[in-house]
Amino acid sequence: MRTPRRLLGLLPPWGAPQKLSWGEQNIFHTAKRYVAVTTTPPVIAAGLLLLVACGGVGGESGPSAVVPAAGQSSTPPPALETTALPPASVIPSDTVSVSQSVFSPVTTISPPANPSPSLAPSETSFSQDGRPLIARVNGQPIYLDVYQKQVEQTEKALVEQGIMAQGEIGEAQRAQLRANVLQGLIDQVLIEQAAAEMGVTVTDEELEQSLHSVMGEDVVSLEQWLRINNMTEEELRTMQRAQLLASKVVAMVSATVPTVAEQVHARHIFTVDRAKGEALLERLQKGENFAALAQQESEDVSTAANGGDLGWFPRDVALMPPVVVQTAFALSVGEISPLVQSEAGYHIIKVEARENERPLTPEMLLYAQQSAFQAWLAERRAQAVIEHYPSQ
Fold first, then answer.
1. What is the largest CA-CA distance in the chain?
2. Which uninterrupted H or E stretch holds 332?
3. What is the pTM of this model?
4. 317 falls in which pLDDT band (50, 70, 90)?
5. Phi, psi of 17 (to 5 degrees)
6. Is the domain defined by 4-256+366-388 classed in CATH 1.10.4030.10?
7. Side-chain half-sphere of 35: how many Cα atoms within 13 Å?
8. Residue 115: its pLDDT value, please?
9. Strands across the sheet with 309-314, in order?
10. How far apart are CA 168 and CA 337, in angstroms?
11. How far apart (Å, rounded) are the C-alpha atoms in residues 354 and 342?
């Protein structure tokens, strides 16, 4: 049986190189990888997503202080693993509507709900070695030149990916893109600081293994890629170490998410017309078969052919209107709901079965893990002391 998200046209094509909604592109792959947009580095991916959302198109040493590699060109290094850092701002899927089914008639992209808190901008600050800073995160510096380089690479990626032609980025979009790049750097530092608290590390052996195919089998291509992307080999190593570290943190946070949940299997009949909905409900009350009537009369093209089948879904991770979920869980098995209204229109719902502990599908588990990581990162942001400095 198909899952609700696939049934409703909401299941993201994992890793597909397409112009997708914000929610679809912020895919949460735990343990093995966390990929934002195919192999696009995370800070660039976040910048691209935020630009689309804005209407452009439909201690002072160690890895944390040197973070240039997270924002390089969209062209991936040859044979490099696609493990990536989390995007700068991950938008919860329930803030995104995708115009592919009756459950999501309007595409709406909201700004990040939990940006990092910050102190008021102060005078330009410099590190002990004289390098200007763009921000500090719990006292840890983010260098201005690193930030500027990532902004430039992000704009370059916009053109390379065909999202925007050269010269089409307006000042408003550029300002938003810069803010998102900075948020990505802040989040990266927060994750690395959390890793230190958790005792999470990346061994030299792990790093060498992840880079073996790049550095040992295709040196010429690697050198070309580094030259094209204005990176050094050391910067590439720094990037990959940070990515591996973030992957471990994501896996630890995700491990707390239950893999089973109470779920219901339901069907629905949908219409945008209230009078029609009332008439259909009356026919059901007179004994007509729910699945047959849904097949004949439901206006949800994604479910009508299957008798309005919504599949199995839990309370908290189903990507459908809350009123539909709430109504379904309030019904007994075999019971038919009254006419209920969502933002899309009117629904009649029938529960076919219920299980108290049913395993989540891989897609639902990924969504639950994504939500857990979002909450975890939001808490880290709220607890952090973030200082922003002018970027002149």
1. 81
2. none
3. 0.62
4. low
5. -80, 70
6. yes
7. 19
8. 56
9. 309-314, 260-271, 346-359, 340-341
10. 51
11. 23
